[in-house]
Write a structure and sequence with these properties.
By secondary structure, the protein is mostly beta strands. 9% of the residues lie in helices and 51% in strands. The radius of gyration is 27 Å and the shape is globular.
Length: 781
Amino acid sequence: MIRRLVASTSALAIAIWAAPAMAQSQTPEPASQDDNDPEEAQEIEDLSPSAEVATGNRIVVTATRRETDLQDVPLSVTVFQQEDLNEQGIVGYERLARETPGVVINRPTQNFNNFTARGISTNGYSAGLQAPVAIYIDELPISANGNSTILDPNLYDVERVEFLRGPQGTLFGSGSLAGAMRIITNSPNPNAFEASALVDLGFTEEGGLRQRYNGMVNVPLVEDVMGLRAVGYYRNEDGWVDNIGTGIDNANSIEAYGIRAAVLIEPSDDFSVKFSVNKEVSNPADSSLTNPDLGTYVRRTAKPDLFSSDLLALNMTVNVDLGFAELVSSTTYSDLVGDFIVDLAGTYNQLVPFSLDAVGADDIIVQEIRLASTHGGPFEWIVGGFYFDKRREVDYDYRSTPEFFAQTGVTAFPDLYYQSYKNYTDIGEKAVFGELTYRFSENFWVTGGLRYGQVDVQTTTRGNGYTSNFLTVGFCTVFRPQCGGFVPALAITPVQPSKGALASDDKLSWKASASFKPSDNVTTYATVSTGFRPPVVNARAGLAPPASSPDDIVIPDGATSDKLTNYEVGFKGSFFNNRFTANIAAFYIDWNNIQVQANRVSDTVQFATNIGGAVSKGIEVELVAFPTKGLRLAANGAYIDAKIDDLSAQEAAISGAVDGVRLAAPEFSGSATATYTFPVSSQADAFVTSNVSYVGSYPGLLPNVPGQPGVPSPQYDVTDEYVFVNAYAGVRFGADLSVTLYVENVFESEAITYVHPEAFLDGRYARLRPRTIGLRTSYVF
């Protein structure tokens, strides 16, 4: 009853209040010439919580690969600026997702991050599949992978974060099936010395100390010509989950650090080149996944599960003003190394101990060149080319324990690894793209975009490895009755080098939109856009089931590309002399040939395949209001109805899907924020802020067992419906110093936010971080 009441209250707030993360970032548009009355301008300044709002600065975004007023972008975009991130303590993906309508993050633990936008997901893990939302750090895509470590990057000293909802296939390629999130870092300023620092110290109940340190320095090396900007950070955070298998309390601590540096050279107004390096290291000490049967914040593994991530990225971006157009060339090289070390004993209910030690490395080269018009006239255009090349090398080593080897009497292996092999996957994408806008007038324009690209994927297995049937031998040795008293002979098979099938697909993505401004402060639009994901080759295609389960399925070859078409209408407006803004988008998505991840029952081997189709439809709302002096009210919300609507009996059998079943997204989610700012002296303003987020429950996977039609999956479960409340109070001393006291998760919600779809884990449930109280101080030099 309480949850329903809170949910109803949140829904009412969404309908009445005003705006979200974007709205918190968005500043009112400048008044028209007729509205520039000094008394009204002073009234707006008195109502507004900051000088920035009072001046009427407008947000400029590059969601369309050119600088565009946010209000005129014909798609649904949420923008976070650095001030919002600092004041609200947003340092990673979790809070970004809660403050973006229609978006949830599926996060088993640190460095596992998959966004779901507009309901486009069958489960949150996406093992072996490309994530449905592309993540970019500047020009580098870091999300073109499924069940692998995906860095949670540092968000200090960024120019802004843009979250684009709906497919972005024409400008961002195959990785943006349901959207794209872009982290855009600040460029060096060759004209002034700048420096800043932010220190965040907190204490988490059920855990311990949280330490976050950030600093930035900007130095003009040659005045007006060359500048250097460097950002460094260090995080050391105690955990709050106890691992009773390892005997470590607060096991899921994390240490992370990094540096980002850039040199900008601008010898003239027409030419610039920027060189940048980004090094980020994230080392969680254990997973945050829990087993509710053991306790609220309790897990059990023989050794810590490790999901570390180490990113090095180098970029050179050249900008040339050609007079009629701007030429941009961006070249990026990155090396991302990650550990995937996980206890798999849950497969046999802890009766057979074994683990996977997988170490992977992604070498990525990205080249994009684009030319965007700057001339006057009714036509605006952009054309470009894109090249992406990634090699993923992974070493797979399956490990048991000395005790189990002794118990089974097996002595054939030189170490604890009973299976070891290496492979690499090459992924390449080449594309050309373009968009053309024609302005019939200042109030009406149309845009069309195309992208044609080819994607190639191939996996190669290296030689010198080996596989064995040790698990079957061990299980039947210890549990003879379950094997009918028969223990098979140990068989060790060398892994022969082999090249897998080449999966290749060429796709045409397109979009078309029409925008109409009935007044200077109102923009409406209608957009149709498409997106797709590249094909997937199953590394173990054709693998027969174990002899103990001859009726189980044979691993299929892989999954072909899926495709999505998004139909969207939107409204963006500012009213009452910019005291109230509203952004509303309604969408209908047709998703076909859906790529899904499944696991074979007998041995949990993962594989990818396709099923028929799904439909997602809904509405997203972002609002902001300044009803009285110093008071800002903000809210966002989304209603999404996403279900499978096209499924054959064969597709249902192999995937575990059911016709009409909900996809892995909440039906309703939203957030509301109230901030009151008031002067405490001639030099300082105080503020108090409350923030409440609501996320509805949703399934963590498809309901049935793959390969066993109609058999409910024992792993099937749903997340909790939950309300998450934060409170902040602080003082700003001019533009230089800010001190904020905060409480996160005020009411100590223990809600389950993620359900892992696979049986091999003992702990499959992620929870909200317990109540955290802290002090955040920032200073600008």
